[in-house]
Design brief:
The complex is a heterodimer of chains A (159) and B (168).
Chain A lengths: L12 H4 L3 E8 L7 H10 L4 E5 L3 E7 H12 L6 E6 L20 H19 L14 H18 L1
Antiparallel strand pairs in A: 1-3, 1-4, 2-3
Chain B lengths: L2 E5 L4 H9 L3 E3 L1 H10 L13 H5 L10 H16 L2 E6 L11 H13 L4 E5 L4 H17 L11 H4 L10
Parallel strand pairs in B: 1-2, 1-3, 3-4
Helix pairs in contact in B: 4-5
Classes of the chains: A alpha+beta (159), B alpha/beta (168).
Chain lengths: 159, 168
């Protein structure tokens, strides 16, 4: 397969519909549900949406109202382990889907970074508590001079 | 309900938290979707047309590279629509989808310059940092008018449940 990063997509009727939206469902690593449970649950809702099982969770596409209904129901499974966001491209769009091109999908690196803190975000939402973080400050010049003087004194003593 | 601009404009955590609190995140994905669905675009794989750098002149001068202006033609309308903003500072290199440091600077400058409530949080790298960020965002969202979604993401957050599911 040639590395074609600019494939002309063959958009279907649904892809061109302005009322259709796509959402990514991303599970944190401490989520109480698995990707397969999410996909099965979405199928069992029997809504007219396209569901794609992915490595991070799932992707759903369809009329906005049905997508929102699906998200609302799905969140009840694990409110603090399931995160969602909008996606611009439809599932399987050749301009983004890795099945049609090389390399990581655009947006993968951002998602990888955010995935690392999803557990903490879920935990912070579940058990909110105040925290205080001590800001690290640079060493003051006076303290630095003190250390230098001490070291110099030690060297002189050794001589 | 308040339209909240986020930076990075495609952030999962920020968009999710804003929706949980019943506000609308101004995410870049919706803008991109309009671009890729527009039947008037001559060459569908290309998201940016020659019109976009011209539209970007509203946000950046003519001397500014066309790449910045083209990006601003997509991000600019989000900034115009913003009624509040959350900006993540100190993120690691490569965090965010814009792919242009100057566009990032210009967008954040435009958000700061706009007379709207702006929250700037630091990108967390540990559990306490994340807690602090989430607390700050939640307090900020509570202070905005018309919120009131619950954290579980029930009906308040995503609108009223639809009566007729259809399509069965």
């Amino acid at each position: 397969m040639p590395a074609n990063l600019c494939i002309t997509p063959d958009l279907g009727k649904e892809d061109m519909d302005p009322e259709v939206s796509t959402r990514m469902i991303i599970l944190s690593s401490k989520a109480n549900v698995s990707e397969s449970e999410v996909v099965n649950f979405l199928h069992m809702l029997n809504l007219p949406i396209t569901i794609k099982w992915t490595c991070y969770g799932a992707m759903i596409s369809g009329k906005d109202e049905y997508v929102r209904e699906a998200i609302r129901e799905l969140r009840k499974l694990d409110p603090y382990g399931i995160f969602t966001k909008e996606r611009g491209f439809a599932p399987g769009d050749p301009r983004r889907c890795r099945g049609h091109r090389y390399g990581p999908r655009e947006g993968f690196h951002q998602m990888e970074k955010e995935f690392r803190i999803l557990d903490y975000v879920g935990e912070a939402l579940k058990n909110p508590r105040e925290v205080e973080i001590e800001k690290k400050e640079p060493v003051s010049v006076d303290y630095f001079k003190e250390i230098l003087a001490e070291e110099e004194n030690k060297k002189e003593d050794d001589k | 309900m308040v339209k909240v601009a986020i930076y990075p404009p495609n952030s999962l955590v920020l968009a999710d938290l804003i929706e949980r609190k019943g506000h609308t995140p101004l995410a870049l994905q919706k803008q991109i979707r309009q671009k890729i669905k527009d039947p008037e675009i001559d060459s569908p794989p290309m998201n940016i047309t020659e019109e976009d750098p011209i539209n970007g002149l509203k946000y950046a001068a003519i001397e500014v590279p066309s790449g910045v202006r083209g990006r601003m033609s997509i991000i600019g309308p989000l900034i115009d629509a913003a009624e509040a903003a959350i900006i993540v500072d100190g993120a690691p290199f490569g965090f965010g989808c814009v792919g242009c440091a100057r566009t990032n600077e210009l967008s954040i400058f435009c958000l700061r310059k706009k007379d709207i409530p702006v929250l700037e949080v630091t990108y967390p790298d540990d559990e306490d940092g994340t807690r602090l960020m989430v607390n700050q965002i939640m307090d900020f969202l509570d202070s905005l008018p018309g919120g009131g979604g619950d954290l579980e993401g029930d009906s308040d957050v995503l609108g009223e449940p639809i009566a007729n599911k259809g399509g069965k």
